[in-house]
Write a structure and sequence with these properties.
single chain, alpha+beta, four-stranded antiparallel sheet, 36% strand, globular
Length: 92
């Protein structure tokens, strides 16, 4: 299992959620966050969304491709993706 984190601009939320809602994922959360990165002014916090997805290993590449198709415009502000090995999860 993988944990995929996508941090992206606020204005692309609806489109990304719509595209990913048709893809079966075991778990997804969406949080509004503030942060800074390489293209931001020092200490300038910009509003973004953070989406965390739990995915089977085989689904990682297709979901990344879907996210990139929605988010990538060629600008550094498009966002960032991180993925990690997930040891497990449990519904409560």
């Amino acid at each position: 299992m993988k944990l995929l984190t996508i941090i992206f601009p606020v204005e692309r939320r609806d489109k990304l959620v719509r595209v990913l809602s048709d893809y079966p994922v075991p778990g997804m959360s969406l949080t509004r966050v503030k942060g800074s990165g390489l293209v931001d002014e020092p200490l300038g916090l910009i509003e973004r969304y953070r989406m965390d997805l739990i995915l089977p290993d085989a689904d990682l590449a297709p979901v990344i491709a879907l996210a990139e198709s929605v988010l990538r415009t060629g600008h550094p502000e498009d966002g960032v993706l991180f993925w990690h090995e997930l040891e497990g999860y449990r519904h409560l």
